[in-house]
Amino acid sequence: MSWTNGYLRQAVCADLICGLTAGLLAFEVRFKNESSGTGPYVLFSIALPLLWVIAVALAGGYDSRFIGVGTDEFRKVLNAGVCLTACVAIVSYATKTDVARGYVVIALPSLTVLDLIGSAMTT
Q: Which in 34, 60, 92, 106 has the greatest CB count within 10 A?
C-alpha cells in the first residue's frame, strides 16, 4: 500500500507541474505583446494547477483502486479536462465574465494533453 501513496504524491506533483506549464504557455502565447488587462489571466494561470488537481480528484483520478488498471487513468484525466473546460465556460457565462477564448483554447487542451503524456510516461 505504501507504493500507492508514493505514486499518488508523484501524480499530484506531476499534475501541478502540468497545470503551471499549461497556464504559463497559454499566457505567453495569448498575451505575448500585451501588458494591460492581463492581471486576471496571471491569477488564473497561477490558480490553474490547483483547479486541475481538484478536477482530477473529482473525476476519480487519485483513487488508489484504479492505479494501473487499463485505460481508466487516462479516461479520468480526459474527463477532468472536459469537465474543467465546461466549468470555466459555465462560470464565465453565468457571471458574464469576458474570458479570452484564445487563452482557454490553449490552456485547457494543452493541460489535458500534457497530463495524458505524463500519465503515459509513468505507467
A: 106
